[in-house]
Amino acid sequence: MSARVRAPELRGRGWLNTGGRDLKLADLRGKIVIADFWTFCCINCLHVLDELRPLEEKYGDVLVVIGVHSPKFEHEKDADALAAAVERYGVHHPVLDDPELDMWQQYAARAWPTLSVIDPEGYVVATMAGEGHAEGLARLIDELIATHEAKGTLHRGNGPYVPPPAPETALRFPGKAALLPNGNLLVSDSARHSLVEIDPDGETPVRRIGSGERGRADGPAAAATFSEPQGVCLLPTHVAEVAGYDLVVADTVNHLLRGVRLESGEVVTVAGSGRQWRAEVDDHAHDAFAVDLSSPWDLAWYDDKLIIAMAGIHQLWWFDPIKRTAGMYAGTTVEALRDGPLTEAWMAQPSGLSTSADGTRLWVADSETSSIRYVENGVLGTAVGQGLFDFGHVDGPAESALLQHPLGVCALPDGSVLIADTYNGAVRRFDPASNQVSTVADGLAEPSDLVLTPSGEVLVVESAAHRLTRLAPGALSAAGASTVDGPRHRTERKPTDVAAGEVTLDIVFTPAPGQKLDETYGPSTRLVVSASPPELLVDGAGTGTELSRRLVLNGEVTAGVLQVTAQAATCDADVEHAACHLTRQDWGVPVRVVDGAVTRLPLVLRGLDA
After folding, report:
1. Are the C-beta atoms of residues 306 and 289 closer than 8 Å to each other?
2. Can you give the residue ranges of every domain in the chain?
3. Residue 11 scores a pLDDT above 70
4. What does the pLDDT average to over 37-56?
5. CA distances for 71 relative to 206, 424, 488, angstroms
6. For the residues 336-345, what does the mean pLDDT come to?
7. Following DSSP, what letter does each residue of 134-161 receive, concatenated?
8. Would you give the distance in Å from CA 199 to the centre of its chain?
9. What's the half-sphere exposure (Cβ side, CA atoms, 13 Å) at 305?
């Protein structure tokens, strides 16, 4: 164990969930503290929120989780947007607003999410990057409880969390919507863990499906439960008749697909084990009830199957309601933007889907690359967007236009597509015929989906305003659109200076207490490396099983991003029925090639020493 390091003081622009109180580390002395460095756009960060909930419940009298919000996108720096996100995602612990990433730097975070564990005496005792650490954290907390109870430095009792007042609105952070055969709309009321059927006026609730409590119970409309549902998709009539349900819901935080029978409102689970996917990439068909999913966010019927925007692992999956099978459709799980054949393309948190009127093209809102992609003839292409770190509000030619974290798309009959440009608060339109992007409407509160009615009207799911909004008549005409030349942003993280030529990439991994590497089914580790631009890497790209890799960097490429994905399989040691675990992390590491710089690049997958 290295020398103990004092935790830096917690400072930021303000606090949430504390009743207006500013917290200091001295206020938390005697408690075990987990500082969770997160940003609300990041699906891995949302996974960690869900992983922490059972720990907060189990260790509520000794553990305090502090969310340190360190934003990626410009919109996430807005204090009101952060407050909305804290409610939207059910964050029930204090949150420190860190808009300039000061705390991120003080605690030496390098990836979203990062967890720092502080002991009751105020020392950092562990730092963990990525998700999948619940078991390791529980063991570490047990050790800290035993140690500090014996020393007399552990203080039991209530923590500093103060819940905000309960809001009163018909919807709360609606996510997605679909048009029903009777002309009504079905909306996923995400923060209230249910579905709401709404009159064609877009305002009047007709019925609610789901009790409103977080859970995963099947059953009648009033008793069934969801956990932050998102996408909803009607099945073709002939498929629904065989399947026995009419539409499918992406039950996002449960990692499930649920079927709904519209006549009765009954809910049934149709795909997913309920476990989060942490496995190997394959092209096999799997039993739909046995397969693990990861944060399914939207759904669309395309290519004679239900396509799933699997935001949690940066892929598209497919589901066959008749054969009751599911599998991977596009993407490799690498988080980046790369076009090509479906099995080789890269995506980053796909969150919106829409099928073209002629059924030949599937539009995809690829949120973390701020891009609009499309599937056609077995290939994934990009219509608008430039990558993980470039975003803004810029109209004009598609090759130079910029979006900011779009979550929804809606294909129009003329071949163009509307975009819910979420973090710009706008509806945008891309016209493939002219290759132009324009702004149709702005001033919206985090639009997350769009619905085209039979009469040609467009309804916007205005998520942060908790309502559906109808676009003004004429908004879709050429005269109704505008051309915005707004700000251009690039996420700037301090690059690591590395030398041209040979560089050693080391992934530092230490199993959690009580665990060991699991080689029961082959190598326990996996490492995938690529670069943007690709020319940055002369050698070392590709997939292997060793967590150390010789890279050769091109001295003629002065800067770029190394894209690294690492995972390690572990199991419980010295127990009769050992549980298995998989730790995984993606990094986008900005580098600058400089003569005489370092020749070793270490990244921590999980480190249990500060």
Report:
1. no
2. 1-166, 331-491, 495-609
3. yes
4. 94
5. 38, 15, 17
6. 94
7. HHHHHHHHHHHHHHHHHHT----S--S-
8. 31
9. 17
pLDDT score for 35 = 97
What is residue 333's three-state secondary structure?
Answer: coil
Length of the chain: 610
Residue 607 has pLDDT above 60, yes or no: no
Tokens of 127: 């730092």
Q: In b/e form, how buried is each residue of 77-113, taking b as 16+ CB within 10 angstroms? A: beeebbbbbbbbbbbbbbbbbbbebebbebbebbbbb
Task: Tell me which fold the domain 1-166 belongs to.
Answer: Glutaredoxin (3.40.30)
Residue 450's region, left for phi above 0, alpha for psi from -120 to 50, else beta, is beta
How many Cβ atoms are within 10 Å of 559's Cβ, its own excluded?
12
402 DSSP β-pair partners: 394
Q: In this structure, is the dihedral angle defined by the CA atoms of residues 601, 605, 609 and 610, taken in order, positive or negative?
A: positive
Is the separation of the CB atoms in 9 and 24 below 8 Å? yes
Give residue 1's pLDDT: 41
Measure CA 464 to chain center.
Answer: 17
331-491, what's its fold?
Neuraminidase (2.120.10)
Angle at 209 between CA 422 and CA 276, to 5 degrees: 60
Distances (CA, A) of 310 to 119, 250, 424: 36, 10, 23
Give the burial string for 221-233 (b: 16+ CB within 10 Å, else e): beebbbbbbbbbb
Is 332:297 a contact under the CB 8 Å cutoff?
Answer: no
CB atoms within 10 A of CB 139: 16
Residue 585 is predicted with a pLDDT of 75
Q: What is the pLDDT of residues 397-448, one digit of tens each?
A: 999 999 999 999 999 999 999 999 999 999 999 999 999 999 999 999 999 9
In angstroms, what CA-CA distances link 545 with 7, 508, 568? 35, 14, 9
Phi-psi region of 40 (alpha: psi -120 to 50; beta: other; left: phi over 0): alpha
Give the DSSP H/E element, type plus range, for residue 174. Answer: strand 174-179
Looking at 404-517, which runs of residues are DSSP E strands? 408-411, 417-421, 426-431, 436-441, 447-452, 458-462, 467-470, 485-490, 496-498, 501-509, 515-517
CA 477 to mean position of chain CA atoms: 34
Residue 601: count other Cβ atoms within 10 Å of its Cβ.
Answer: 19
Residue partners of 547: CB distance under 8 A and separation at least 6: 506, 507, 509, 525, 527, 566, 568, 605
Could you tell me the two tokens for 215? 């859970």
Give the CA radius of gyration of the chain.
24
The confidence score (pLDDT) of residue 515 equals: 79
Nearest by Cα to 98 from 119, 117, 112: 112
Q: Is 134 helix (H, G, I), strand (E, B) or coil?
A: helix
Share of the chain above pLDDT 70, in %: 94
228 or 566, greater pLDDT? 228
Instruction: Supply the DSSP symbol for 163.
Output: P
The encoded tokens of residue 73 equal: 């996108």
What local confidence, expressed as pLDDT, does residue 610 receive? 32
CB 509 within 8 A of CB 536: no
- Highest mean predicted confidence (pLDDT) among 120-134, 149-163, 493-507: 149-163
Q: Measure the CA–CA gap between 333 and 313, rounded to whole angstroms.
A: 5
* Cα 593 to Cα 560: distance, rounded to the nearest angstrom: 9
Structure confidence at residue 343 (pLDDT): 94
